[in-house]
Amino acid sequence: MAAAVRAGLWHRGVISATRRGSHSSTALKPQYDAVIIGAAYLQKGGLKTAVLERRHVLGGAAVSEEIIPGFHFSRASYLLSLLRPHIYQDLELKKHGLKVYMRDPYSFTPMLEDGVRGRPPPSLTLGADLAKTQQEIGKFSEKDAKVYPDFLSYLERLACAIHPLLDAPPVDIPGLTQGSLRKKISALSSLKPLVKSGNDVLNRWFESEPLRATLATDSVIGANTSPNNPGSGYVLLHHVMGELEKEKGAWGYVEGGMGGVSQSIAHSARSLGADIFTNRDVEQVLIGQDGSAKGVVLTDGTEVHSKVVLSNATPYITFKQLTPQDALPEAFIKSVDQIDYTSPVTKINVAVDKLPNFLAAPNSADGKPGPHHQCSIHLNCESVEVLEEAYREGQQGRPSSRPMIEMTIPSVLDPTLAPPGCHVVSLFIQFTPYLLEGRRAWTDQDRERFADTAFDWVERYAPGFKKSIVGKDILTPADLERVFGLTGGNIFHGSMSLDQLYLARPLPSVADYRTPVKRLYLCGSGSHPGGGVMGAAGWNSALKVLADFKRL
């Protein structure tokens, strides 16, 4: 039997499909082949599988919740791109209800400074139409406009080099040291982008600040790093190597919110025979007399036995909270304590009663959304230095006074999310520390104060925004940890830094998803290749489990 603990997909259905307390009509059995999160591939491989979800709503951090009456939010993750195409196809997610709204254009960066007298301030819009995008970039630099197509080709080549590494467990160290020289060089050359900073990449290509700053957001989004720090080049690549509806690098909105992804996977798993349960909080992994995992015990005392256990919780939760400490080597526990979960992210979900009206792109008289409203809207991105200053403040234990804000309004494309004329707004904000100066925890007053700071900045770009707010949900790093089980509030289940990637993710000794406890496996974003609602770690882990299961 296999057992797995669900803790959270991040990095994106309808709310009625995940009612409080809803779960499979099948009763929880005392024995399974697998009790896991992300059960579809094991069930498809012939293992009788159960999924145990701690919260009342299925999906970890990829959930839809009606936290304000009438408004349905992608409460944590909010965009889809990185889900591996073969998983999309294998599990027939479209057949099982997944619908995605493509965005074109996809990026809008309004400026604050005054334009020509009587005209709106300047802005930069990027989209799939290359000629239009070059025209937009040309407002700031003709040179940048000319080389932009070459830059896109460069990113695609890098992404193609990385793709083979995503859909397989990391190459083992002996494989690298004992393999042919040609194979070693090939593997290492594929990892070259990891050592660069985002600015190293962007400065090589561009001179205009609005374009560099807009693109630099992808090098720091969700990461407690600066565009100038080594390794941020990989974070940039991580966020552009996805694919949606066969369009490279595209990001889209899931109908009904990000819970639509989780629900479609759940429907696929159920169709294959998996049992899925919510409100099932795992207390501990059960360890047999031979030292191997034999199932889990829930907080209500229920024991569920299995031949293997998979944990989609963060490595910290898996090894420090769910696994009995006497079952793990002391040196390994110390290594787990060194994993970096630092998060700079505060997510604010906002319900508004009218469409934001940007100075740089005023609303039309009929009040209908413009093309820019469907974009990722980058605020406080006039220059890379603005991002750098926000980062520096965050490292001092102070929420950024001029934070980097990625704003999305999915209801402009998906009318199921809000009442007519109203909208849901997502503000993904950096940089905010887990603990404030003096290692002080956030209070409600601190949350409100920071939300006001963020709203004040939005107001400067879109006057009238503050008056349109009818409700909000503020999630600091500590709140993301408390609600979704994201250790440190880190959306990737651990930093995507150079020392926590590939062979070292989350630690070299467990990079192949197997743990020191026999028959206990990792299957979440804390493992290779990381977070972002990819499914790749679960796929790779399932392959390991199925191979090992044949020998049990």
From TrEMBL:
InterPro entries found in the cross-reference section: Amino_oxidase, FAD/NAD-bd_sf
Location of this chain's protein in the cell: Mitochondrion matrix
A UniProt-annotated Pfam family: Amino_oxidase
Molecular function as annotated in GO: oxidoreductase activity
The entry's keywords: FAD, Flavoprotein
Gene3D superfamilies linked: FAD/NAD(P)-binding domain
Any one annotated GO CC term: mitochondrial matrix
SUPFAM superfamilies found in the cross-reference section: FAD/NAD(P)-binding domain
Boundaries of every Amine oxidase domain copy: 39-356
Stated family: Belongs to the carotenoid/retinoid oxidoreductase family.
Free-text function comment from the UniProt entry: Probable oxidoreductase that may play a role as regulator of mitochondrial function.
Quaternary structure annotation from Swiss-Prot or TrEMBL: Interacts with COX5B; this interaction may contribute to localize PYROXD2 to the inner face of the inner mitochondrial membrane.
Protein's recorded name: Pyridine nucleotide-disulfide oxidoreductase domain-containing protein 2
UniProt source species: Sinocyclocheilus anshuiensis
Lineage of the species this protein comes from: Eukaryota, Metazoa, Chordata, Craniata, Vertebrata
Gene from which the chain derives: pyroxd2
